[in-house]
Amino acid sequence: MPSAPELLITETDEWIVSHRANSSLPGYLIIASKRFANDLSELPEDTLRELGPLLALTQTVLRRKLNARRVYIGRYGHAPGQSFHFHIIPIYPWVEELFWLDERYRVLQQFTEGTAEETTDGAELTLFVWREFCERLQPPPIKGPTVPEVVELLKKSMSSRPSPINI
Q1: What is the Cα Rg of the chain in Å?
Q2: Could you report the per-residue pLDDT of 24-78, keeping only the tens digit for each?
Q3: Domains contained in the chain, CATH given
Q4: Which InterPro entries does UniProt cross-reference here (predicted)?
Q5: Higher confidence at residue 19 or residue 84?
Q6: pLDDT tens, residue by residue, 53-66
Q7: Distance CA 166, CA 61 (A)
Q8: Which of 9, 38, 55, 136 is the 20 to 30 A CA-CA neighbour of 160?
Q9: DSSP character string of the chain
């Protein structure tokens, strides 16, 4: 899954970490396998061994350096020709606030059963991020560092591959 060189953050022997090219949300990362595969079970052990620590490091850096309230890690795509990759989606307090202020997303409440508490989950916030920060021609305003600033910060924080404990 090639990425623009200016969005590359770090790489290991088996994985590439880059900022998602079409996302205006600072810190929305893609971790892609250097080996072509459509499923984790198709990857060799050494590739899989690198993955856990890399996911943990990425989550830790987004929380500690960018103050992400939550970090969602998922694999969503299944388009032919795309190699195995993960989406790393930071949810900042201001992103969640924008979600609650946007009345269009209240329609999602009709699909829940149980209490009427104003809570949301990862699926709803992921949908919000995709629609508002990746697909909209005019995304919402960003609070905090820009995508290029975040890329530089993450390059510095992740380049030496420190343990997540030492971040």
Answers
A1: 17
A2: 999 999 999 999 888 889 899 999 999 999 999 999 999 999 999 999 999 887 7
A3: 5-150 (3.30.428.10)
A4: HIT-like_sf
A5: 19
A6: 999 999 999 999 99
A7: 10
A8: 38
A9: ----GGGEEEE-SSEEEEE-TT--STT-EEEEESS--SSGGGS-HHHHHHHHHHHHHHHHHHHHHH--SEEEEE-----TTPPPEEEEEEE-HHHHHHHHH-GGGGGGGGG--S-------HHHHHHHHIIIIII-SSPPPP-SS-HHHHHHHHHHHHTT---GGG-
Q: Which of 14, 24, 25, 19 is nearest to 3 (CA)?
A: 19
Q: Which of 133, 128, 145 minimizes the C-alpha distance to 25?
A: 133
Q: Are 64 and 167 in contact (CB under 8 A)?
A: yes
User: Residue 83: exposed, middle, or buried by beta-carbon count in 10 A (0-12, 13-18, 19+)?
Assistant: middle
Query: 109 vs 8, 118, 119, 130, CA distance in Å?
Result: 37, 9, 9, 18
Q: If you average pLDDT over every residue of the chain, what do you get?
A: 88
Average pLDDT for residues 138-154, to the nearest whole number?
96
Cα separation of 91 and 121, whole Å?
Answer: 11
